[in-house]
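Take a specimen:
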Amino acid sequence: MEIATLGIDIGKTWFHIVGLDSKGKPLFQKKLRRPRLMEFVATCRPCSIGMEACSGSQHLARRFIEFGHDVKLMAPRFVKAYLKSNKNDFNDAAAIAEAVQRPTMRFVAIRSIEQVDMQAIHRVREHLIGERTATINQIRAFLLEYGITIPVGGRNLRRRLPEILEDAENGVSDLMRALLHRMLMRLRRIQDEVDELTVLIKTLAASDPQCQRLCTIPGVGPIVATALVAAVGNGTQFHRSRDLAAWIGLVPRQYSTGGRTRLLGISKRGNRYLRRLFIHGARSVIHNVDRRPHRFGNWLTQLEQRTHANIVAVSLANKLARIAWAVLRRSEPYRAAPA
């Protein structure tokens, strides 16, 4: 029995496997626990293994590569088209085995341990920022019940709230005052954690050559650089710069038919965290960077004169993402070249 392809449906404890031969004919179905899965894959002759990209798939992919297999990860939405009949675990595994053989299938890059760790830092930091925003909004809502308003911005709230708590004549009850003090302490702890992770990200960026090269691009700092390296590594999975921009979701969504091309707003597909960071970086370039030394300077100025500011920011973010791909692929820092 010559196994050419394995499709594995991943679970927490149980894993469902479908094996195919070189002609795509089903050979067997197996249901194994995690330890038995490792033993089975380790004893198989090198073959192609397909899995859906999900929690735990990166670890399994790295382990299976150590066993000598060719491992491919795929987005679940691309596998769904190959699902036949009703949905169950073995049908899912068969669909994965079918999809991994397609020559036009788009695969997810397998990340290193360093990339996984870097991405985890960004996710924890982003979670803390969301928690900080929720806490600030809740404090504002409580104060509005007492007719107290604070100007927009977390910095204004952190500055004004201690004054409000010390003011005994503002009508805030003792119970609410104690609750707000507790929330202020929590807000400060969250801010301290965000600051610590930000310092950690900057330290990691300073020690990584790829991040150092990316930081030479206008609008790209340690946070954008480390997030990009954590997500795409050296960018070899993208054949051209537009592919990276499309993966981030910074290209127009197309709805064309009958030979008539129709382009809509940006697709907003892929990594929304990276997309937001690049757009913020583009806004920073628009307002703070001297454009004269850069090739995109004249283009940016002309674009501002004929279109909306948001479109300008997204267009520049697209260009910065393409420049970032070139820096990663060529392993060279960004060089400003006047037009």
Observations:
- The chain has a mean pLDDT of 91.
- The chain has three domains: 5-108, 114-206, 209-330.
- The longest helix spans residues 174-206.
- The chain has 13 helices and eight strands.
